[in-house]
């Protein structure tokens, strides 16, 4: 059974950076597409970035395309989300999730971590 644990969240000033980690156990992450989602208070969960299992193609929502980078380290069974030039609107709980293929729809992801809070504020 695949288990995912996020870490790396925190409080950062606008313009700052954070690197989130999604560590897996129970199965190699390379067998799955791994997505990062976020959920702001009172809003729906939205897809942020995804890395596919087959060819490591990456996908990012438009609002984070030049600021966020998703990557994987198969040796460490971990996927990362490097977030630069953070804005207050990036605030939310960030979740990693696993699925067969990348998708913007959270319902297609069957495995989820518990989330890590990211707060961007001065």
What would you say this structure looks like, in words?
This protein is mainly β. Helices cover 0% and strands 48% of the residues. It has no helices and 11 strands. Strands 2, 4, 5, 6, 9, 10 and 11 form a 7-stranded mixed β-sheet that branches. Strands 1-3-8-7 form a 4-stranded antiparallel β-sheet, with no helix packed on it. The mean pLDDT is 95.
Q: What general form does the structure show?
A: globular
What do the pLDDT scores average to? Answer: 95
Q: Helix tally?
A: 0
Rg of Cα set: 13 Å
**Between the first and last Cα atoms, what is the distance in angstroms?**
40 Å
How many individual β-strands? 11
Run of helices and strands: EEEEEEEEEEE
Beta-strand percentage range:
over 45%
- The parts where pLDDT drops under 50 for at least 5 residues are none
Biggest β-sheet strands, sense, barrel: 7 strands, mixed
Briefly, what is this?
By secondary structure, this protein is mainly beta. The chain is built from no helices and 11 strands. The strands form 2 sheets. Strands 2, 4, 5, 6, 9, 10 and 11 form a 7-stranded mixed β-sheet that branches. Strands 1-3-8-7 form a 4-stranded antiparallel β-sheet, with no helix packed on it.
Helices and strands in order, then pairings?
Elements: E1 3-7, E2 10-12, E3 18-25, E4 33-39, E5 46-51, E6 58-60, E7 68-73, E8 78-83, E9 92-99, E10 111-112, E11 116-120
Parallel strand pairs: 2-11
Antiparallel strand pairs: 1-3, 3-8, 4-5, 4-9, 5-6, 7-8, 9-10, 9-11
